[in-house]
């Protein structure tokens, strides 16, 4: 039996705050297979970012268990990369040095191979000619590409993405999504991708997990019945239209209830 990359088993998370306990997640069970792309949809505050923080080892579950490659998560792991909503680049470092930050942070220096890898990654995200530019000289989409290259520097097995394209305009967002799929086709990764966009989830993911409102739990987990490679034309496929309509109804009805 193959070990899943990520496995949540009846996991719960309750935060204790000054105003009392907040039950953020309840009885969450699901798995993500190796090199699978899972999108997570759910209402605001249902615990999506909390799930990512737990996978990243930044927060321990209150009850239940979480395993990464068959082992409990006890601390932040090197083999997990994170892309946030905003790329939070170092303003005083140029693009290449921002991409190299994880290596410098880990061993206090950067090897020639890591520098070469940073250049390869910048080429992969279409920024080879911007290596010496400073973050404030870049557009939002370019900054987000630097954040993606940085998350890939240490070649993580797992990539966690928390609404990575939400600050971008619709067209850039679509282009970036398909760029991401091309990058993963060259360098497969296990991806957990949080989004509020139903169509983005359907177009990019292998599976879409829908969560209920707080306390968040898994409402449904649906496969995306469309093969790869995918591109802008995928949006015209009937299966995508049907899935998008189904997911939208589900979310709207839950919200109305
Ligand atoms: N450190 C914390 N202390 C107390 N409560 C927290 C903490 N982190 C998250 N919460 C609460 O847990 C719940 C889930 O938060 P989380 O950020 O995971 O939701 P989300 O689904 O990612 O929301 P959004 O879609 O708005 O980004 C919220 O009610 C939030 O207020």
From TrEMBL:
SMART domains: AAA. Residues 6-238 form the ABC transporter domain. It holds the Pfam family ABC_tran. Keywords: ATP-binding, Nucleotide-binding, Transport. SUPFAM superfamilies: P-loop containing nucleoside triphosphate hydrolases (SSF52540). It comes from the Bacteria. CDD domains: ABC_NrtD_SsuB_transporters (cd03293). GO terms for molecular function: ATP binding; ATP hydrolysis activity. InterPro entries: AAA+_ATPase, ABC_transporter-like_ATP-bd, ABC_transporter-like_CS, ABC_transporter_ATP-bind, P-loop_NTPase. Belongs to the ABC transporter superfamily. PANTHER family: ALIPHATIC SULFONATES IMPORT ATP-BINDING PROTEIN SSUB, TAURINE IMPORT ATP-BINDING PROTEIN-RELATED. This is ABC transporter.
């Amino acid at each position: 039996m193959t070990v899943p990359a990520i496995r949540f088993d009846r996991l719960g998370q309750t935060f204790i705050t000054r105003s009392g306990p907040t039950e953020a997640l309840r009885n969450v069970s699901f798995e993500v297979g190796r090199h699978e792309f899972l999108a997570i949809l759910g209402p605001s505050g249902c615990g999506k970012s909390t799930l990512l923080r737990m996978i990243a080892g930044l927060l321990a579950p209150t009850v239940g268990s979480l395993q990464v490659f068959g082992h409990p998560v006890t601390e932040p792991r090197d083999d997990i990369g994170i892309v946030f909503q905003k790329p939070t680049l170092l303003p005083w470092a140029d693009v290449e040095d921002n991409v190299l930050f994880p290596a410098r942070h880990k061993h206090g220096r950067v090897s020639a191979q890591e520098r070469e890898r940073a250049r390869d990654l910048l080429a992969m995200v279409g920024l080879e000619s911007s290596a010496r530019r400073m973050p404030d000289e870049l557009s939002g989409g370019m900054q987000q590409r630097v954040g993606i290259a940085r998350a890939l520097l240490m070649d993580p097995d797992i990539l966690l993405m928390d609404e990575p394209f939400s600050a971008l305009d619709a067209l850039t967002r679509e282009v970036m999504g398909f760029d991401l799929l091309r990058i993963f086709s060259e360098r497969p990764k296990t991806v957990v991708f949080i989004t509020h966009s139903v169509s983005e989830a359907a177009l990019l993911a292998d599976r879409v997990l829908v969560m209920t409102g707080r306390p968040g739990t898994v409402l449904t987990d649906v496969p995306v019945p469309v093969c790869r490679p995918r591109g802008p034309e995928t949006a015209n496929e009937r299966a995508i239209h049907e899935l998008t309509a189904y997911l939208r109804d589900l979310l709207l009805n839950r919200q109305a209830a």
